Amino acid sequence: MNKKMRTISFGILFALLAASCAAEPQTLTVMTHDSFAVSEDVVAQFEEEHGITVEFLLSGDAGSTLNRAILSKDHPVADVLYGVDNTFLSRAIEEGVYESYNSPVLENISDRFKIAPDNLALPVDYGDVCINYDKAYFSGNDLDLPQSLEELTDPVYEGLLVVENPATSSPGLAFMLATIAEFGSDGYLDFWQDLRDNGVVVVNDWETAYYTNFSGSSGQGPQPMVVSYGTSPAAEVVFAEEELEEAPTASLVGENMCYRQTEFVGILAGTANRGMAENFVDFMLSETFQEDIPLNMFVFPVNENAKLPDEFEEHIQVPENPASLPLDEIREKREEWIEGWREVMLG
Question: How many Å apart are CA 36 and CA 201, to the nearest integer?
C-alpha cells in the first residue's frame, strides 16, 4: 500500500470512528438514594437538549449512598451525587467527595439553604421530619395532641409513638437531632430514657415505622404517632385509592418538634464529565426540575420561582420554628450522640 492509499485509509478510519462516537450519546451517571424519583419526560427533555444519556445509580438510603461515594472516591463510579442531606453533609465534605461549582442558578435560591462551603454541594430541596399522627385515633379517643417534645413523655401517650433508629435511618437521625436541639447534648438522653420508660417503639427504618406500626397509614398499626415527614399527609391524599377531601394524618409542628432536612447535589471529584455534570446540576436547580419533584419525592423545591402543587398548599403543616444544629457540631458529635442513644435505648 503506497503512502497516498495509507493516508486515505486512515482518513476513512478516523471518519468512521468519529461517526461511531457521534452515534453513541455520552452517558452521565448520577448516584442517588433509593427514594429518588423524577418524571421520565423531564429527564428525557434534558437528554434531548444535551445529546446525552443519564443513568441513575440507586445506592440504598442516604447514609449508604454517601458511604458508596466515599469508598469509590479514588475511582468514582458516578459523575454527580444527589441525596446527601444536612445531617450527613459535613461528613461528605470532610471526606472530599465533591468538586466546587458556583452554579448561575444559585441566584434563585435563598441563602439560608447555601450552607456548604465553597459551593461544594448545592441545595436542591428541603422538607421537615416531624411526628405525624392519626387524626381518627386522637379524635376517637378524645385525646389532646402533644404540643411539645416534653409532653410525649406524659403517661397518657404511653406506647403511642414509633421512631426509627438514628444509626440506620435518616428520619430517625433527624428526629434525634431535633431532641438535641431542644434539650441539649447534656439533656437529650434523659428525654430518651423517659420516652423508653413511656413505651416508645423503635424500628430500624421508615418503611416499617410508617407502613407496619403507624395506624394512620394502614389503619392496622398499634401506634397512632410516627416519626415521618411533614409532607406525608399530602402523599396520603395523592396516593389514596379513593378520592379524599382531607388527609387522614397531620403533623405536630410545635417549636423544635420537627427537624428541617435539606438535600444537596454535588459534582463528584475526579469526574471525566465535568461540563455535563455542571449542566445537570443547573438542570436540577431549574424551575422545570424543581416543579416536578414535589409530587415525586414529596419535598419542597428550593428555587424561589418554582410553583407548589395544590396538594402541598392544602394538606401540609409547615413548622414556623423547625430545629437545626450547626454542621460543625453535627460532624464533631454525631457518632458520640448516636452511641449515647444506643446505650440508652438498646442497651
Answer: 28
What is the pTM assigned to this prediction? 0.83
Sign of CA dihedral 101, 105, 111, 112: negative
All CATH 3.40.190.10 domain ranges in the chain, comma separated: 26-125+261-309, 127-260+316-345
d(CA 246, CA 203): 28
Coil, strand or helix: which one is 190? helix
DSSP type of residue 222: S
Q: pLDDT digit string (tens) for 21-52?
A: 444 559 999 999 988 999 999 999 999 999 99
- For the domain spanning 127-260+316-345, the CATH number is 3.40.190.10
Cα 176 to chain centroid, rounded: 16
Per-residue burial over 16-50, b = 16 or more CB atoms within 10 Å of its CB, e = otherwise = eeeeeeeeeeeebbbbbbebbebeeebbeebeeeb
Q: How far is it, in rounded angstroms, from Cα 93 to Cα 268? A: 11
